[in-house]
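hey can u check if this looks right to u? its 81 residues, i copy pasted from the old doc so theres a chance i mangled smth
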Amino acid sequence: AWQFTYYFLIWIYGLKILYKKEWFWNLDYCWQNFPFQYVISDIYWYYIIEIGFYWSILLDLCFDKKSNNNTNEIIFHHSIT
């Protein structure tokens, strides 16, 4: 239930910060000034929250009781994503 709550809230936050951006509606704006684009603080914090969440899942996998045989594959998957 807590993961559903997290994903739902981060989805709402993502829509809130992206809805008013011109490149949300027209993808051509995504490539203007590439690769020297400025990252606004809202999007920066969105990525920091996401990275922190996935790091917490990775750490949780390392210290959690190993109940299945694919723990290494799960850790590899979370490291890549």
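DSSP finds four helices and no strands in the chain.
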